[in-house]
Amino acid sequence: INALKDVISLKFKTMQSDGILLHREGQNGDHITMELTKGKLSLLINLGNSDTKTHPSNAQINITLGSLLDDQHWHSVLIEHFNNQVNFTVDKHTHHFHAKGEFSYLDLDYELSFGGIPVPGKSGTLSRRNFHGCFENIYYNGVNIIDLARRHKSQIYIVGNMSFSCLEPQVVPVTFLSSRSFLALRGTSGQDEVFVSFQFRTWNKEGLLLSSKLHQSSGGFLLYLSDGRVKINLHKTGRVLSDIAAGN
């Protein structure tokens, strides 16, 4: 079925930075995928290889909107497709674009999937993570998809673990409100190994994240932000080892 106009809207919230939100695929490799990648939302339209006359080989459209969308707050998404005009909206920020006539030739199945790709490997190189979080108000051309699923209608099928509620994760954050704020943990005497994991979020490009002194080696390390990059500085008594940097 080829609708004259497709309108898809939903709201989501998650703490995962990556995951498939929406997928629709055709027989010849054409597909539309909306996914969260490093906290940003991308709409990928892949025109496949089905007919080089109507659309070039491996033609792709990739639009990215938003940032820090993995903050466990609700975010709204709207996709409007009419002929070759597409409007992609995330939290009231809209990107309008024309698909140069090629989009209307997409050979798509009518099946839409939310939260993952139904058949692993069907999309060839697609091996992305399923969405882990909450959806609400999923509408496709005015049809309430979640309501159909809740009433176990035959046109909907559910894969994996799903509940019709949104459980809040038990995460207790801490915010440092001044430049002199910090947390300190007393070490165990004689222990010379340190294992630390944490997540952080800041608008500042500089700042000390973690410091530790090691017991026997008379040294320690500093983990810090410098110009938006995470760096670690290892030091021993009498000499300083070179800094190691990662991330942007």
Molecular structure report:
By secondary structure, this protein is mainly β. The protein has two domains: 5-151, Jelly Rolls (Sandwich); 172-247, no CATH class. It has one helix and 16 strands. It has one helix at 145-150, and strands spanning 5-13, 19-25, 31-37, 40-46, 60-65, 75-82, 85-90, 93-98, 112-114, 134-140, 143-144, 207-214, 219-226, 229-236, 239-240, 244-246. The strands form three sheets. The chain has a six-stranded antiparallel sheet. A five-stranded antiparallel sheet has the order 5-4-3-2-9, with no helix packed on it. Strand 3 (31-37) and strand 4 (40-46) form a beta hairpin. The longest helix is centred in the middle third of the chain and has 6 residues, at 145-150.
Topology:
Elements: E1 5-13, E2 19-25, E3 31-37, E4 40-46, E5 60-65, E6 75-82, E7 85-90, E8 93-98, E9 112-114, E10 134-140, E11 143-144, H1 145-150, E12 207-214, E13 219-226, E14 229-236, E15 239-240, E16 244-246
Antiparallel strand pairs: 1-6, 1-10, 2-3, 2-9, 3-4, 4-5, 6-7, 7-8, 10-11, 12-13, 13-14, 14-15, 14-16
Give a short synopsis of this structure.
This protein is mainly beta and 248 residues long. 2% of the residues lie in helices and 39% in strands. The longest helix is centred in the middle third of the chain and has 6 residues, at 145-150.
